[in-house]
């Protein structure tokens, strides 16, 4: 700001106007004294402020901050997950014998869950526990289905998504069976349970929290 | 309201009448007789005849034996031995007994090697065999038809198809039925069936024959060239069929005013016949035998006879899953599928084929 008010004459201008170039400090002191004499009612500070030339803002614009995208705590969307192929099982690993230990583990887990599977345990209790249990590793077979070619498929359950069971059969083939319109059989020791797939269309993680009501028909 | 109206309506029936001559090249009589597989009752009426000729009597007595097996598991019908022994050599017919076509599962074996299963919805979903829904389903499909070609299977017994059918019949959903069996063959092994199924309770039956002579019967007058009948000279095929039905079930056809049961009377113009011979054979009758009977009745007119015509009527099983060839047969309010030949003395014939509601038009 000061450079606007106090600007030194160039050499050429000084010679032309026959003005003696003064020192910067001398010039400043002169201006101050002149102002004081011209405007006696204004204080020193007011003069200084005027000279400052503060800008007065007429309208107030706030710069809109870009809203931060809501951080998804779920991580990746389904499309991205499929692209990443995190949950695919490579063909070299698709061997039935590899998953038999998983099945043993699952049997042990169910036995623990039901506090030991004695022959006289009540089937209702097993059913109630199975509804909330995780079925990965169980040997599942299709008993009834609206599509005849699915009937009879048996294997170890590898993955359970909302609508589908992914099963590996004894012939090392990965089969994808839709849950809808199918009845599955799960066998543990000597207890055979039938799962009606149409009522079971939930992710396994959500199923543990869901209360099942006896509603609707079980006809396929 | 609509339901009441629908209930009061008579179910639809189809009657196909045709006329032709036996010596005609393109006459379809043999084909139609042979493709009507499951025959329950055969009756014939010969007017102006007191006693049957010896040949006819022998033929009637020889309408072969048929067999009845209880609780035969279905997988026995697809074994290689069965196919090789019975299906390939001759014509083998089988039908489940005492199963209603509209409610239960029904199985039939046709002579061309096809095994037809008519299954209800739950059974079809459990067997896991490929089939198609029945033609006579409403909005909700309750019946499915599975057709297995045994001749095709027998060529390759290690095929996946055969293994799957075996697995389904033996382990997945074993089904047992009471079967009526009959086998037509040209060899001499008479009791092959009995020995094959000796493990199960197999019984041999002969068809029941009943003969009667009716006297003073009013018969309609027919002209072989006029199917529809002339108003004063002859009766139409439709009236004739109605009249036959009355005669065959021994109804009183006098149109008595106080008869509560029937007020049907013989179609006019009619003549009174002194005596007529009526013969009925009941059982699981082979089409080949019926064919032979028809031939013999044609030859009835080789010698001059008083009778203007003779008639042969064949009724099929109401619970058979097929009517002619592989046309699907169902039961709505009645499950009839029958045909009737009227044979004239100049070798002309009339053929009437009748089917009920859940049936296609006869061929």
Write the topology of this structure.
The complex is a heterodimer of chains A (220) and B (363).
Chain A: H1 2-5, H2 11-17, H3 24-38, H4 44-52, H5 78-84, H6 96-113, H7 123-132, E1 139-145, E2 154-160, E3 164-169, E4 174-178, E5 182-188, E6 191-196, H8 204-207
Antiparallel strand pairs in A: 1-2, 1-5, 2-3, 3-4, 5-6
Chain B: H1 2-8, E1 14-21, H2 29-35, E2 39-47, H3 54-61, E3 66-73, H4 80-87, E4 91-96, E5 106-109, E6 114-120, H5 121-127, E7 132-133, E8 143-149, H6 150-155, H7 160-172, E9 176-184, H8 192-196, E10 202-205, E11 208-220, H9 237-248, E12 270-285, H10 287-298, E13 309-316, E14 337-344, E15 348-355
Antiparallel strand pairs in B: 1-15, 2-12, 2-13, 3-9, 3-10, 4-5, 4-9, 5-6, 6-8, 7-8, 11-12, 13-14, 14-15
Helix pairs in contact in B: 2-10, 3-10
Question: What does it look like?
Answer:
The complex is a heterodimer of chains A (220) and B (363). With 220 residues, chain A is α+β, with helices and mostly antiparallel strands. In chain A, strands 4-3-2-1-5-6 form a 6-stranded antiparallel beta sheet. The mean pLDDT of chain A is 78. Chain A is built from 8 helices and 6 strands; from the N terminus they run H-H-H-H-H-H-H-E-E-E-E-E-E-H. Chain B has helices at residues 2-8, 29-35, 54-61, 80-87, 121-127, 150-155, 160-172, 192-196, 237-248, 287-298, and strands at residues 14-21, 39-47, 66-73, 91-96, 106-109, 114-120, 132-133, 143-149, 176-184, 202-205, 208-220, 270-285, 309-316, 337-344, 348-355. The radius of gyration of chain B is 22 Å and the shape is globular.
